[in-house]
Amino acid sequence: MPETKSTCPYCGVGCGVIIESEGAQITGVRGDPDHPANFGRLCTKGSTLHLTASPAVQRSARLLQPQWRRKRGAAPQPLGWDAALALAADRFADAIRAHGPDSVGLYLSGQLLTEDYYVFNKLAKGLIGTNNVDTNSRLCMSSAVAGYKRTLGADAPPCSYEDLAEADTVFIAGSNMAWAHPVLFRRLEDAKRARPEQRWIVVDTRRTETAEGADLFLQIQPGTDVALFHGMLHLMFWEGLTDAAYIAAHTRGFEALRDAVRPWTPKEAARVCGIAEADLIQAARWFAQADRPGEAPGATLSMYCQGLNQSAAGTDKNAALINLHLATGQIGRPGAGPFSLTGQPNAMGGREVGGLANLLGAHRDLANPAHRAEVAALWGLPSVPERPGLSAVEMFQAAADGALQALWIVCTNPAQSLPDQATVRRALERCPFVIVQEAFGSTATVAYADLLLPATTWGEKVGTVTNSERRISRVRAAVPPPGEARHDWAIGVDFAHRLEQRLPDRLNGRLNGRTTLFPYALPEQAGDDGRSGAEQIWNEHRESTRGRDLDITGLSWALLDEMGPQQWPLPEGEAQGRVRLYEDGRFPTDDGRARFSAAEFRPVAEPRDARFPFALTSGRLRDQWHGMSRTGTLGRLFGHVSEPVVEVHPQDLARRGLKDGELVRVTSRRGSLVLPVQASDRVAPTLAHIAMHWGSEVLTGLGTDGTPIPGVNGLTNPAFCPGSKQPELKHAAVSIEPARLPWTVLVLAWLPQAEALAAREALKPLMGEVAYASCVPFGREPHALGLGGVLLRAADTDARDAAQAKQRLDWLDRVQALLGLGGPQALSYADPRRAHRRVIRLAQNGNAGQVLQGLLMAGDTRAEAWLRTLLEDEQPVQAYGRLLLSPGDQPPVASAPRSPQVCSCFNVSEEAIRLHLGGCAGSPEDRVTGLQAALKCGTQCGSCLPTLRRLVQQVEVAA
Questions:
Q1: CB 3.0-4.6 Å disulfide test: which of 275, 448, 484, 738 passes with 428?
Q2: Residue 727 pairs with which residues in a beta bridge?
Q3: In the predicted model, is pLDDT for residue 512 greater than 70?
């Protein structure tokens, strides 16, 4: 069986994978034991990658040919590639001639390869002549970029993964590593196991899985990070815990910072943060290694992610944390330094080629005339545009205001991921010409496209990516692209050739005898899988880094193929890349010194008030990725968290008279959302939490004014950081009130996998006709018969009259038909007057007898728990007969309720774990080891290990 080494397309850890394939089909995936990022480990998402490339997914979810909507709202029609790219070039050329180059915009993705990024950056800034090219990395890492540049002089994470094992104190702020970067968290757990004296400090607004393992947990109020860091630094100054020699030799701005933090006594900082003063003091002393007098200095490593970045004060938060490292000399040494954890697989690569509206390639600044001249010379042009382009939020606001004539969206889903979805969708509706270049046809943004261009995805692409530790890895194709899908960079190059022909005046005298700015071999010209052209692009990018802080002139694809992934910088003449930056105390600034940042504390952009008394935060789920266009095709990845909920503290539920599972309406100043409420002591009182993944693809309905609800980002705040222009996605002020939707519907059905995916797409228009609807897959492990589960939940007001009751019944008829719940094998009950209905569809399951294949309950869903258990576990139901139509919440025949899933890899439930622990003895770690040996949970990806440890602790306390 052929095997191909490549890289995982999910988070910024950058895990190596080995892809197994047969012919044109990917059949398996496992971790690459030789890759230095993961050494063979994969998380739940990575270990199921091959399932997202199944024939069922390819048929039902992939875009396989170009399509064109002749008018908005119409069904897209197939189009050949020549006609599609000619149309695109004509519309862009017309807009540029009539309205100027800044009338168009390109919105890219941190999931693109470096070569893709380079081409589209050059297309915008070199050929079109606009800096209106930005990326969803703006939503992810731009505050980290700005924070590094403000303090250290360049966007370069100074640490490496091996520093996790060297650190004495690990300071994790605004990152749930256990779920967001699980393989890296496994390495941190290994380090703690090898050195139990290693201390973890975790700072977060929620008690996450990461916080469960902390030696000190600081559960701060949203947006108070700068106050916390200033308070810690105040104590360090007061107690003499700073490194005066390092400050004098390697930094500037110390006096201004000292004055800025003087008011932030530990008492005042703790008050603002909502934590104990003693905990803040402990954190400061541990960070400064104050308990090691006379010994070799200890090492402190900080790791941080979106909790710091996604904020209207994101740059200040990043810089304030880096202040702590500079003040204590905790940088440039093994186990020490500020380590920003990249959210997306190639956000780093995009930053390297200047793929943001305010950057140029190789970490050059757009505002610097010398840097602009260098890029122009590299491209053989007299100049590149100097005016900063529109960042992500600004770009869509401009389109909503009618200022953009054409918008090209590549490998991202802004109709799910950007804040203030009402504005985003108005932008997509108003912009005269929208191109969406995508691999998956199920994203919310696809519905707004005039032109759809099918792109390759994981397992088909060729190029490079850079992970969080500056390590460049090769991405290789295991199978050919399906249908007519093309590489992203190749689409951009083919388009550029056509635009050059339509805008010859833009190139007059600029090409110096060349025929094109894009002389890269397209796959069909080179007769290969795209390697030739991609390597040419990468070589051009490599040359642009010569003499820069990220110099990779000593690298080549041949070296990467021979030696494996390498870190930058690796200049020509060097044998290997640099593991750690700033070891000599010199920084890439004009005088070689780092800069302290004396930023003032600013509260959240949208504080709570009487109308909106809750602070809403967002975060990731363990088994899902971003908008779920890929992970959302697999039922087994919904086993851990199966449906969208809003988490609220039990005290707040009791205070408002709400019950766990009740539908509530969450409302911000921008929109509202209906979903079940879940009691959770992980959030503090007056806080609420919703996972970031629930877009309108799976969660929708109608607002109180009758407008569609566009998922969780219909609530979030577009206010952005002035330094990084990263929006405050992590916080919004909301109200939470009972939704009062008594007419409820639950539908579950097993269907062939391809039909299940198609049914979910067909259900989307129906979901928008009721006040609340969510639709997700289910099925905790691959079905023996290749079936996929569809779960639809809906709710609305009671029918006011016979006409509305009939409307509800018609809606149920359409749902029932789409999911095949009729026929002679179905049992049914109906009350047309109240629009109540129950339908049970049975199927023969070999010698096991009859099992439930589908069910529909409308108007009365009290029987959900036991019926859902029977259906999902495929238990024999001969003993029930027509009792399956019983409406009550108690099963007519004794049956055990379904236990929550803990381990996705081996489908191990919480009940099975608790039963095993009942007979276990020994230390907590011995009990975890026993669980792993007996049930295999925690032995593959390890993502469930924090939960296993928590269950061990709970069982011990109960005993």
A1: 448
A2: 720
A3: no
| Angle (nearest 5°) at CA 236 between 234 and 239 | 105
Question: Which CATH number is 67-139+346-454+488-529's, of 3.50.50.60, 1.10.10.10, 3.40.50.740, 3.40.50.150?
Answer: 3.40.50.740
- Token reading at 317: 């938060």
Task: Give the model confidence (pLDDT) of 205-258 as tens digits.
Answer: 999 999 999 999 999 999 999 999 999 999 999 999 999 999 999 999 999 999
Smallest CA-to-CA distance from 594 within 605, 581, 606 is with: 581
CA atoms of 305 and 225, how far apart (whole Å): 13
Of all residues in the chain, what percent carry a pLDDT higher than 70? 98
- The helix (H) or strand (E) run that includes residue 106 is strand 104-108
Name the token pair of 268. Answer: 């005042």
603-727 topology per CATH: Barwin-like endoglucanases (2.40.40)
pLDDT in tens, 634-647: 999 999 999 999 99
**CA 765 – CA 745 distance, rounded (Å):** 16
Cα dist from 375 to 132, 379, 492, 495, whole Å: 17, 6, 19, 22
What's the Cα-to-Cα distance from 470 to each of 348, 544, 813, rounded to whole Å?
7, 17, 55
- Rounded to the nearest 5°, which phi and psi values hold at 144? -65, -40
Is domain 142-339 given the CATH code 3.40.228.10 in the classification?
A: yes
What is the DSSP pairing of strand 463-466 with strand 471-475? antiparallel
| 593: amino acid identity, one letter | R
- Residue 340 is encoded by which pair of tokens? 């920003």
Supply the DSSP symbol for 342. P
Residue position matching structure tokens 């388009």: 495
Tokens linked to 47: 């270990």
Q: How is domain 901-958 classified at the CATH fold level?
A: Arc Repressor Mutant, subunit A (1.10.10)
Handedness of CA 200, 205, 206, 207 (dihedral sign): positive
Q: Is the pLDDT of residue 95 over 90?
A: yes
The type of residue at 530 is: G
Beta bridge partners of 541: none
Q: Would you state the structure tokens that stand for residue 101, as one six-digit string?
A: 């180059």
Provide the mean pLDDT of the chain. 94
Q: Are 492 and 120 in contact (CB under 8 A)?
A: yes
Least confident of 431-435, 461-465, 886-890: 886-890
Helix axes 225-239, 254-261, angle to 10 degrees: 110
Residues in Cβ contact with 372 at an 8 Å cutoff, skipping those fewer than 6 apart: 360, 364, 366, 383, 384, 386
pLDDT at 958 over 70: no
pLDDT exceeds 70 at position 139? yes
Residue-level pLDDT at 145:
96
Phi, psi (degrees; rounded to nearest 5) at 749: -150, 140
Q: Contact, 18 vs 30, CB < 8 A?
A: yes
Share of the chain above pLDDT 90, in %: 84
DSSP H helices, 718-786, are: 753-767
Residue that the structure tokens 């079940």 belong to = 676
DSSP helix/strand/coil, 85: helix
Residue-wise DSSP of 650-692: HHHHHHTT--TT-EEEEE-SS-EEEEEEEE-TTBPTTEEEEET
Using CA atoms, how far residue 340 sits from 321, 619, 913, in Å, is 11, 17, 35
Tell how strand 251-252 and strand 594-595 pair up: parallel
Nearest-10 crossing angle of helices 488-502, 531-544: 80
- For residue 508, the model assigns a pLDDT of 65
Question: 775 — phi, psi (to 5°)?
Answer: -140, 120
47 compared with 845, residue with greater pLDDT: 47
Residue 293 pLDDT: 62
Structure confidence by residue, pLDDT tens digits, 721-780:
999 999 999 999 999 999 999 999 999 999 999 999 999 999 999 999 999 999 999 987
Query: What residue segments make up the domains of the chain, in order of their start?
Result: 67-139+346-454+488-529, 142-339, 603-727, 741-898, 901-958
* Run of H or E residues at 364: strand 364-365
